[in-house]
Amino acid sequence: MITLRRVLSQVRIGVLTPWAYRTSTLLSLLVLALQIVLYSVVWRAIYAGRQDPVAGTDVHTAVGYAVLGLTIAAALHTAPFWSIQARVRDGLIGIDLTRPIGLLTQNLAVQTGHVLAALPAVAVGLGTGLLVGGLTAPTSAGAALGFAVSLLLAFGVSQLITLLMSLTSFWTLEVGGIGMAFYVVRTFMSGAIVPLWFMPGWLQAIAKALPFQAATYTPLAVYFGRPPGGLATALGVQALWILVLAGLCAWVWSRARYRVVVQGG
């Protein structure tokens, strides 16, 4: 019970931190709405005058995919690793290590708080999707249920990827360049913007070998009735990535903890 209360206190910190910078947070919601409008315009322009589906996808699915993909990415793919870098640089990470819950648990709790703080993005994304006529219902009740389960697994995959990225701060005090490269690779390879089924075969193979697609593309593919390898296989791959990433985080942290040197009183 005490441990749960401590974890919840970290979640609360994660919720409050983004909204301490209201202008930036509100601007990100505006950018999300603008992205959805622009992508819907672009997809409709690409499909203009075309009656046949492309790669089995019609214009309604393409626009709906963009609406849901951008919304899920905005809610799940938060980036609290910038604050971890600052705490490592300032030496405040030493205080984190003295807390009664482990550093990985602290960070996962804070990241969960960031995701909760980003939930207004869901309302903005879906609301904008309704305005541009880009929302489509799941292909079936089974797809809706599978989407809910897959989205929960995507949350786990996304947070473990972010945690693994944050641990690089123990090897380099400047993660700006790495963070930007990470953001670009994750956004593209996750299928948040372009579905994997539009990619050439060799690029699909690379994307499927990386964990990013399990954090966005898989739940979207389930939603639109195209789970890769079938629903059971798609969910199983997501669960497998959670186990692999959790093991990687534990292993990297077992190495990173010996690099911490806190000087001063």
Give a verbal description of the structure.
Keywords: Membrane, Transmembrane, Transmembrane helix. Pfam families: ABC2_membrane_6 (PF06182). This is ABC-2 type transport system permease protein. It is built from 12 helices and no strands. The chain is mostly helical and about 260 residues long. Helix content is about 70%, strand content about 0%. The chain has one domain. The model has no long low-confidence stretch (mean pLDDT about 90).
Q: Could you name the ranges where pLDDT drops below 50 across 5 or more consecutive residues?
A: none
The helix content, as a percent range, equals: over 70%
Radius of gyration: 19 Å
How many structural domains? 1
Shape: globular
Write a short abstract of this structure.
By secondary structure, the protein is an all-alpha fold. It has helices spanning 2-19, 22-47, 59-76, 81-90, 93-98, 103-117, 120-131, 141-166, 176-189, 201-209, 217-223, 231-256.
